[in-house]
């Protein structure tokens, strides 16, 4: 007990903090500023081998079972958007974080923070969507919590969902396992969730409406695992978009990546909206897509399996893992030039999940 | 798949909701209004045997292991108070919810919602406290999430902690197991957390400062379980206080309860503060106390074990479970009269956890 106390007493914030430093919106973007917060505060404080893997889920063993555990708070604004709402999103986001570790999602906790004055009708619609999404994903909500804060203390409603899943014996997916020669697979077109939210928030109207791609990906993952192809790791490119997900993997595995721009599926409406809004679709959030790093021999088999699944019909091999410039992701444009695809620096779109 | 779809389509909010009905602060109080929200929205939507136990934690089995799972969001205001802050509280609250199910706490997730403009110094202090509390409780933070919302979108900082623990084979504690004749044990004096928060918030000063009792109770629980005494159920009387915790157990077990007012430990300063503020200490939140319903033969042995533990030194047998008036909790005053101890109707003190 006394040695513990000593450790506690000697812990202090690892990086000097000045009185002027404050949290900005970009710290929640999933890009460079989020990584800064993680490396300055959370990793030094809580660093342990499980957390330090920095995957979307922690894997731990209890007796002979390997379980996955993940948490996500949802603060999306507005609460309702084309293709979903905060309730369905809270299920999809957490189910996907489990699925990206190869886990079969089993149980969810749901914790609401409600703003005083929230209409019961809104709560009812969100609860109904959340329940429908959980039922569709085959997960049970087994524990929960509700807090209420006064008007002005919270913006309508926040939801935290934490999830538990089970991982098959022998399956180890992690961002540090990409190897030169591996192929990069993407399950479909990018940018739809972020653009749907932005359009709703700003009252923009497009000729063909853009819906969020929010969906639970665990059955697509199950179809991929069933091929017995060699998957190194998977990510759902949410906040920070495809670029941030790939940069994280490249950094973690100390490898380079080369993407083929023409191979990345992008709907015309999303391309148009991004051009109009000055956004790069590589940085726009998705909530129903996955990117997988796979062994070269397994790429075609996995691609076939993905394309046979409703959520992977437009799957593509979008690039290759290289040994050049570890940590760097580059993209070859259709014109044959090359550009660096860096992590998102600040916040492109706050509160998209 | 089609039968599932049918179920989904036929689900709708079970109780008609009128456009005028809105969330009020009392819905977060842990009293009658919280129960109303649970019974109108959450149980009809998510009802399953695990959730419907309505204990502080869900217990599920994976292969041969029995695991406990719980979630809690913390919105306490102010973030710092005598005896702790939102970081230590977030650990203690979730560790205690696991411990009340007899689980040994193992892992935590931590999800921050930060308000834009939050000073890094504040974040650093909270993270340090959270880490210290986790280390002291022997739990590992293995997964996390950070979101940032713009100024005015969230009041400084909210934290969600979800927790996983392991339950020994054969141990089944649940609120529906109290039986007439059982004794009601309380681990110490009540009301300190709520009064400490209120005093801090309102700038009240007392002759002797009142500190929150916030503490992790898992080692006290371990000491109780080691006696092999028969424990039916345990609760930590947080929001809604001792009265709400006992009313929930009485309702769930369909039993009555008779409390002895003179046996309930209450510090003089807390009694004085409650009189001054017009609060009933039975309804004021605790964050480091537990109430246990135990078999009559085991009461003395368990009481001894509690009193030998630093967090149970003032433990008392405060009452008896009866077969009179199922669901009703009554208290005998020192004058020999009897009063009904009902559930908290509205919200006595918002945002105390």
Q: Can you give a write-up of this model?
A:
The structure is a homodimer of 353-residue chains. Chain A has a seven-stranded mixed beta sheet with strand order 9-11-8-12-10-13-14. A five-stranded mixed beta sheet of chain A has the order 1-2-7-5-6, with helices on one face. Helices cover 32% and strands 24% of the residues of chain A. In chain A, strand 5 (103-115), helix 5 and strand 6 (140-149) form a beta-alpha-beta unit. The model of chain A is unreliable at 1-11 (pLDDT under 50). Chain A has helices spanning 2-10, 32-46, 49-52, 86-99, 120-137, 192-202, 218-226, 241-253, 268-277, 299-307, and strands at 58-62, 65-74, 80-81, 84-85, 103-115, 140-149, 157-167, 183-186, 231-235, 256-260, 291-294, 316-322, 329-332, 338-340. Chain A is globular and about 55 Å long. In chain A, helix 4 runs parallel beside helix 5 and helix 7 (218-226) packs across helix 10. Chain A folds into two domains: 48-167, PurM-like, N-terminal domain (60s Ribosomal Protein L30, Chain: A, 2-Layer Sandwich); 175-340, Alpha-Beta Complex (Phosphoribosyl-aminoimidazole Synthetase, Chain A, domain 2), CATH 3.90.650.10. The first copy, chain A, is built from ten helices and 14 strands. With 353 residues, chain A is α+β, with helices and mostly antiparallel strands. Chains A and B meet through helix 1, helix 2, strand 1, strand 2 and strand 5 of A and helix 1, helix 2, strand 1, strand 2 and strand 5 of B.
């Amino acid at each position: 007990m006394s040695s513990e106390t000593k450790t506690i007493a000697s812990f202090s914030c690892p990086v000097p903090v000045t009185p002027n430093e404050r949290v900005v919106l970009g710290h929640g973007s999933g890009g460079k500023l989020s990584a800064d917060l993680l490396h300055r505060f959370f990793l030094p404080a809580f660093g342990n081998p499980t957390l330090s893997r920095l995957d979307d889920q922690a894997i731990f063993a209890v007796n002979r079972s390997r379980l996955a555990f993940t948490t996500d708070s949802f603060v999306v604004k507005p609460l309702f958007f084309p293709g979903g709402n905060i309730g369905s999103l809270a299920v999809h986001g957490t189910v996907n974080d489990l699925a990206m570790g190869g886990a079969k999602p089993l149980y969810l906790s749901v914790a609401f923070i409600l703003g005083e004055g929230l209409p019961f009708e809104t709560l009812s619609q969100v609860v109904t969507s959340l329940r429908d999404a959980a039922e569709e994903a085959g997960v049970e909500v087994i524990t929960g919590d509700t807090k209420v804060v006064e008007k002005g203390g919270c913006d309508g409603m926040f939801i935290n969902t934490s999830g538990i899943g089970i991982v098959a014996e022998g399956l180890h997916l992690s961002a540090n396992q990409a190897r030169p020669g591996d192929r990069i697979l993407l399950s479909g077109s990018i940018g739809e969730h972020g653009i749907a939210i932005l359009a709703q928030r700003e009252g923009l109207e497009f000729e063909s409406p853009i819906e969020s791609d929010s969906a639970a990906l665990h059955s697509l993952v199950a179809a991929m695992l069933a091929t017995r192809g060699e998957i190194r790791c998977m990510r759902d490119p949410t906040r920070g978009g495809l670029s941030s997900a790939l940069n994280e993997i490249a950094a973690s595995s100390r490898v380079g990546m080369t993407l083929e721009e023409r191979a990345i599926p992008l709907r015309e409406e999303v391309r148009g909206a991004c051009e109009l809004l000055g956004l790069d679709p590589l940085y726009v959030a998705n909530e129903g897509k996955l990117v997988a790093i796979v062994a070269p021999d397994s790429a075609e088999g996995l691609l076939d399996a993905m394309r046979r699944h409703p959520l992977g019909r437009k799957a593509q091999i979008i690039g290759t893992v290289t040994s050049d410039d570890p940590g760097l992701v580059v993209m070859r444009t259709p014109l044959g030039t090359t550009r660096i695809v860096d992590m998102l620096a600040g916040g492109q779109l706050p509160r998209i999940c």
